[in-house]
Queue: 2 jobs
Job 1
Amino acid sequence: MTAPKPFSHRTLLWALVLLLFPVLVSAQGVITYLEGSVTIVRAGTSLVADIGSDVQERDTITTGPRATAVIRLAGAADIKLRENSSVDLSTIGNSVNVDLNRGGVFARVFGQILGGFAVVADTVVGGVRGTEFFVAYGRTIEDLPDVWLCVNSGEVEVTVVPTEATMPVREGEGVNILAGMRLTDARRYRWTERLNWNMDPAAGPVFDETDLDGAYADLLNQDYD
């Protein structure tokens, strides 16, 4: 009987690659849907995005007027950028961190992310482990823009970093962070009901038509004395 051949270094290498491949794939991201002009800035180079385009940690994704993009991150979360929005994909891996530079972003966490998922807007952090929520910049009435956050399902822990103030925002609630520093009470806002949470083109329109600037009067009437 012939003795089995020992694993060669090459065989062992391929075995490791096969074992690690799902991890490598899940640690990256991909654009699953887009409309209009969407760009990826990577290491200072601007790339035209398309459906199926890969995204990487430290990429910046930007949407133009009447444009939107849905991005799957780490195989466990989807984000949708509104028009005229920009995000930095700060971390994609055991944890996912998305920095909102301007505009608004929807987030849906559907899988396990060991280190958690967070959207950062200047001084405000929204951290979750399984939920669906929306973050956007409001008007700049004081030194910094207001930040809006509302939750469609689950719960988000909102933290204002400089003051360390925190607040849970639950399903159906929204919160306004005035000048990115002062938390208002979580409550139901009428404008949040008009948001388009859909990220699946097979289920209907994906583009969010909500007039956020017009809806801002709803927050101003309740949050500013």
Job 2
Amino acid sequence: MDVTIYHNPACGTSRNTLALIRAAGIEPTVIEYLQKPPTRDRLAKMISDAGMTIREAIREKGTPYAELGLDNPDLTDEQLLDAMIATPILINRPLVVTPLGTRLARPSEAVLDILPADAFTGPFTKEDGEQVLDNEGKRIA
């Protein structure tokens, strides 16, 4: 299965998402988006495919969001996209693209919606100790 993750190795949610993908037996294409951001068109398509608005895809915490005035409701989607491309830390992460769909994997287990359900055969526990999959590889609600 062809899977791409727009990843930030400094982010625990991104690391957990990557580990879940690998636990499914998939070695994804890993794009460290802070060093290699997606094109503007690619970012817009991923956001649309994930069913999000541009504003929902902007990361506010730990970014210059407020300093750049991006909380201004008069800004257009085009202006927001321009800001995200110019300052990639504004792109919420991790975005994951598979043949089954595109998701902002927040929380990390949201990636399970776009991975084959039968790919998991055992438990999975996130870095913080939260168990996501049981001993049979089934999602814990």
